[in-house]
Amino acid sequence: MRPAMLRAPDGSLILPGETHWVSLRYFSGTRLAIAGLLLVAEAVFGEQLSLGEFAPALFLQALFGYVLVGALFLFLSIFRPARFYVQLVAQLVLDLTVLTLLMYSSGGPRSGMAALFLLPVAGAAILGPTPMALFFAALSSLVILGEAVWRELTFSVGSVSFVQAGLYGASSFAIAWVMNRLAARLILQEKIALQRGYALQSQIEINRAVVAEMQDGVLILSSEGQPRALNPAAARLLRVDDPVSVVAHGWGRHDAGAEISRHFLDWHAEPSRGLAMLEINVPSAHGRGPALRLRVRFAPSTGQTAGRDHVVFLEDLQHVEERAQQLKLASMGRLTASIAHEIRNPLAAISHASALLAEEDAGSGAARLLRIVQDNTLRLNRIVENILQLSRRAAVAQESISLTSYLPELVEEFCREQGCPADAIELSVYGNPVVQFNGEHLRAALFNLLQNAQRHGLGVAGSIAVTVVPQGRDRQGRGAARLDIIVEDDGPFIERAARQQLFEPFYTTHARGTGLGLYLARELCIANGATLAYVPDADETKKGGFVINASGTLL
After folding, report:
1. Are 16 and 37 in contact, with CB atoms under 8 Å apart?
2. Residue 91 burial by CB count (10 A; 0-12/13-18/19+): exposed, middle or buried?
3. Contacts of 428 (CB under 8 A, 6+ apart)
4. What share of the chain is helix, strand, coil (3-state, %, to 5)?
C-alpha cells in the first residue's frame, strides 16, 4: 500500500522530487559511514567498548550485512531513482532489523546501541509523511522496550534498562514530530522558490519576446559606451548584419553605432541631455544612402545595474512622421474627396462653355484667354481625378509582373502619350526580375515618377534613367527577396529642406505640377506592400532618384 503523501503546513501535497532523492542518498551515505565507524571501533577498541560482547559472531555478521545491503541501497538511490517510498521503507526496515541485532548482541539498551535507532526515526521524519514518521518512532520504541523486557525476564538486569528504553522512546517521538514539521516547512519553501523561479524565467522569456518584437530599437550600452545587446529592430535601424559580433567585438566599422556611443558618452557626462536627434547617413546596398533620422533616448540604469548598463531607445523619425502624416491625410482625404465631387460638375460646365466659345470666330486676344481657361480646366480636372482615385482605392489584387517585358512597353506608351523623345529614357534591367504588384497601380506610380522626371529633367538624350536592381537573396540563394526600381533624371539638385515635403499632397515646385503625383505614387506603393523614397546621391552632389522597393524575385 502506498504511504500517505507528505503534506505542507498549509495542507497541500508535497510530492517527492529531486530534493527527496538527494536527501535519501545522504541518508544512505550516513548509514554506510556509521557501519564503517562501528567496524573500525570493533577492530581497534573492541575490548574497551564491549561491542558485541553478548554475541560477537552475530554482531560481526549483522555489521557486514549492514554494509553490503547499505551499499546496495545507495547504488539504487543514485542510479535507479524510482519508487521513492518503496526504497525509503525498505531502508528503514533494514535499519530497524540490523540495529535490533546489533543492540541484542551488545547487551541491550545499556550498551548505548539504542541511540542508533534515532537514525531511521530521523530519516522517516525528514523523508516521509507524518504517519510514517510516527509509525517508525513507535516501532523503534517498542523494539527497544521489548528487548529490555526480554532481557529483564531472562537475565534480571534491573530497572535501568527500562528507564533508558523509556527515554529513547520519548526522544524518538519528539525527534520524529519536530523534524517532520521542519522538513515539511523547508520543502514548502523550496516549492515556493521553484515556483517563483519558474515565474521569473517565464517573465524573462516574455520580456525577451516583447523586446524582440518591438518596432522601436532597444540598445544596451555599458558605461564606456560599448554595446551589450540590441534587439532586431535596433539591428535593422543601424544596418547591423551580425549583432553577435558587434556585442563581442564592439562597433568596428558601424559608424551609426559609433556615433550613438559618442552621444551616449556626452549624455553620461551630462545626464540632463536625455534626448538626442541624430541624422545618420547609412549607405544602401546599391551605393546610395538615405539619411537615417533617429530619435535617441538614453535611460539611466536603476537597481542592481545602476552605474553599469544603460538602455538606449531608438526610434525612426521617418516612421513617426509617416504615422502623423497618415492621420492628417486621412481626415483631409475625406474632406477633399467630398469637395472634389462638388467641383466636378461646375468644372465640366466651364470646360464645355470654353469649348463652345473656342468654336466661334474670336480675336487673337480672346483665343489666348480661352486657351488659358482650357489649360487650367484640364489641370483642375487632373487634380480632381487624382483625389477621386485615392478615395476610391479598393483591395489590391497583386500579380507577378516580368519587368523585362513590362518596362519597355510602359516607356514606349509614356513617350507616345507625353510627346517624349524615344531616346530621352534609358532603361537598364538586370536579369529577369519579376515584381509582385498590381499592374494598374505600378503603371500609375511609374507614370507619375516619369512625368516628374520629364518636368525637371533637361529633356536631352538619356535625361531620364530607369534602373532595376535586385536587393538580397532568398533563403535558398536563388533570387532576390526585394527589387529596387530607380527613376532618375538630370534635373537640378533637391535641397535637404525640400526633401521633407516631396511626398506631401499639393506640394510642388513646378508651375504645371499638381502636387499630387509623388503623393499618389507613394500611396499606390504602400497599398502593394512596397515603399517609395527619394534617395540622394552618396556624396550629395547629384540629384539622386526615386526608388520603389517592392517584393520580387530574380529568375
Report:
1. no
2. buried
3. 465, 466, 467, 468
4. 60, 15, 25
Q: Are 144 and 114 in contact (CB under 8 A)?
A: yes
Phi/psi region, residue 318 (left: phi>0; alpha: psi -120 to 50; beta: rest), is alpha
The pLDDT score that the predictor gives to residue 328 is: 65
Residue of 254, 258, 312, 263 whose CA lies nearest to 282: 254
**All cell numbers assigned to 517:** 503625383
Nearest CA to 36 out of 66, 74, 57, 61 is that of: 66
Map grid coordinates 506640394 to a residue: 507
Please say whether the dihedral angle defined by the alpha carbons of residues 40, 46, 49 and 50, taken in this order, is positive or negative.
positive
Whole-angstrom distance, CA of residue 225 vs CA of residue 231? 17
Backbone torsion region of residue 233, taken as left when φ is above 0, otherwise alpha when ψ lies between -120 and 50, otherwise beta:
alpha
- The per-residue DSSP string of 342-358 comes to HHHHHHHHHHHHHHHHH
Q: Which residues of 302-334 are buried (b: 16+ CB within 10 A; e: fewer)?
A: eeeeeeeebbbbbbbeeeeeeeeeeeebeeebe
Q: What is the pLDDT of residue 113?
A: 83
Tell me the DSSP string of 422-456: GGGEEEEE-S-EEEEE-HHHHHHHHHHHHHHHHHH
What does the alpha-carbon distance between residue 550 and residue 555 come to, in Å, rounded to a whole number? 15
Nearest residue to 290 (alpha-carbon basis) of 496, 525, 473: 496
CA nearest to 518, candidates 493, 483, 545, 484: 545
> What three-state secondary structure class fits 129?
coil
Strand 545-554 relative to strand 433-437, pairing: antiparallel
pLDDT at 219: 85
Tens digits of residue pLDDT in 353-379: 777 777 765 566 677 777 777 777 776
What pLDDT is attached to residue 521? 85
What's the predicted TM-score (pTM) here?
Answer: 0.43
163 DSSP 8-state letter: H
* Angle subtended by helix axes 364-391 and 317-359, to nearest 10: 140
Amino acid present at 105: S
pLDDT in tens, 385-424: 666 665 555 556 788 999 989 999 998 888 888 888 878 8
Q: What is the DSSP letter of 508?
A: -
CB 547 within 8 A of CB 485: yes
Q: Which residue has the cell 515603399?
A: 531
Give all strands of the β-sheet with 217-222 in edge-to-edge order. 227-230, 217-222, 309-316, 291-299, 275-281
C-alpha cell at 419: 510627346
Q: What angle do CA 204, 205, 210 make, to 5 degrees?
A: 95
Place of cell 512625368: 451
Spatial distance between the Cα atoms of 72 and 38, rounded to a whole number of angstroms: 19
Residues 457 and 463: beta-carbon distance below 8 Å: yes
Low-confidence ranges of the chain (pLDDT < 70): 1-17, 46-49, 156-161, 211, 213, 253, 272-292, 300-307, 321-322, 325-342, 344, 360-365, 379, 382-396, 472-480, 497, 500-501, 505-515, 538-543
Amino acid at position 356, single letter: L
Q: Answer for the pair 291, 279: CB distance below 8 angstroms, yes or no.
A: yes
